[in-house]
Fold this sequence. Notes:
The chain is α/β, with parallel strands linked by helices. The protein has 16 helices and nine strands.
Amino acid sequence: MVFQQKQMPQGKRAGAKKPIDRRIAVAPMMGWTDRHDRYFLRLISPNALLYTVMLTSGALLHGDAARFLQFDPAEHPVALQLGGSDPQELAKAAKMGETAGYDEINLNCGCPSDRVQRGAFGACMMKQPALVADCIAAMNEAVDVPVTVKTRIGVDEYDSYDFLCDFIGQVSEKGGCDVFIIHARKAWLKGLNPKQNRTVPPLRWDIVHRLKKDFPQLTVILNGGLDNPADVREQLQHSDGVMIGREAYQNPYFLAALEEDIFGTPTATLRSRHDTIRALLPYIEAELSKGTQLYDITRHILGLFQGLPGAKKWRRILSEKAFLPSAGPEVVLEALSHVAEIGNEKRYA
Length: 349
């Protein structure tokens, strides 16, 4: 079934490049969505919008920016997520991202980690909407690609709907942001670690629905707790798009189900799980020749056969042998030989 999505408003600057289809996106996940993972996910999903892990403006301005910003052209459409709180530094970092070829620049206003708090950015910035507006305005002045915000529905005791509306209102009106990705949980800056902040605060999809009704001129993307096509279809009735997090990493072939269900991609054009790995092998060989370790790539593909016969053997071989100094594509082929080829049906657990 092809889900008919309502017309989405486009970003003010989206016309500078091909408009971005935001119906399905894969969340930026620290330690997970690196360039190897994004290349792999693109083999499964031709249309999902992919995001980098959060990169701080300081890391780009004072570190190895070329390495941090590296990505394969096959990853498009791909967005760069930045962390920071200095408008001019963020503007420079955004320009670096645009020059590197990213399709969107996103500002993180939702990460609750202690390290991010020490840098005075992430979720704590929700308490400073005027500063966030200044940051977005400076970034918008610096680049022609869309500048977007990923945030929460609240932070600490600042969790009223009025607080959220004030934040969205200031950042949209004064900063010029018209795309907001809303993680439908509040963040606790003290008492919960980042993992707990992804599960303990209750999901409030209804808050995001209400936000879209009250700000119809904005593009509102819902993030949090989505792990099956039925919920995705339902949430697309109330928002302009959804962002998939852990399910896209732990069970990546879930994205193939969404390709057919949401984008209407013909089944015959989608890669099976086995064909996905065969398509990944040339990339693995090229990366190994550059000094990349096999496990840096294979750690992202462990969940490909989740719920299918042979999945445990697949994971065990990759986990045990990909660390070996001499490990190469033959390890992946060995693991693949223990999983039956079942075609590209959208079976997932």
